[in-house]
Design brief:
The protein has 199 residues and is of the alpha/beta class. Helices cover 38% and strands 16% of the residues. The protein has one domain: Collagenase (Catalytic Domain), CATH 3.40.390.
């Protein structure tokens, strides 16, 4: 049981536990250094990263085939994917720093939805919260998991779209962030700092 979980609260991470997430391929990323990605991740509450194994940047786009992912040059519409099986985020050939971090936060939102939220929290999101307000984005219209991932990404990036979604934003703050202070301005400064690759 020594994965950093407190027995009284299965989702609370002990302060003395280090979270290890490997970053791959970011040296080839023109939009952000591995140091700037790591810096943003370090600012997030630890429990959100619990169980996440890898974040990989692929300089070539992936296209889904019938049996596996295959590498293909060029720009396809799929920018990222979260693998529940191996707890890995893949980000591919994005066109800007803003898009890179949006995709990172969106896929991290999927990790949180599938691996961090407990069954009660997830049921509350699907049954009570998701349909209570419009989806946070066009992509969020697909289903409850996509709307949650978009909510998480837009919350970290900062957007006026969430002003009209107070119920969803409150759920995120109270349930996921547990009303803990998250240095949103510092995260947004790194995300929006196009000229400083070190973050």
């Amino acid at each position: 049981m020594d994965q950093g979980l407190n027995q009284a609260n299965q989702t609370e991470v002990r302060a003395d536990v280090n979270i290890h997430v490997s970053l791959w391929g970011f040296r080839q990323c023109p939009w952000a250094s591995p140091e700037s990605v790591a810096h943003v991740l370090e600012m997030l509450p630890k429990h959100l990263l619990l169980g996440l194994a890898h974040i990989r940047y692929l300089s070539q786009a992936l296209v889904p085939s019938t049996t596996t992912w295959v590498s293909a040059p060029g720009n396809v519409s799929l920018s990222g994917v979260y693998s529940q099986e191996d707890r890995t985020i893949l980000i591919q050939a994005v066109h800007s720093r803003a898009k890179l971090f949006h995709v990172l936060f969106h896929e991290l939102g999927h990790h949180i939805y599938f691996a961090v939220l407990d069954s009660v929290e997830k049921k509350r999101w699907v049954v009570d919260i998701w349909g209570s307000e419009d989806p946070v984005s066009e992509y969020g219209k697909r289903n409850a998991a996509e709307d949650f991932a978009e909510l998480f990404a837009l919350y970290l990036r900062g957007t006026s779209l969430l002003i009209d979604r107070p119920i969803k934003t409150r759920f995120l703050r109270e349930t996921l962030l547990r009303s803990k202070a998250v240095p949103l301005e510092a995260i947004r400064a790194v995300v929006n700092d196009e000229g400083n690759m070190e973050g």
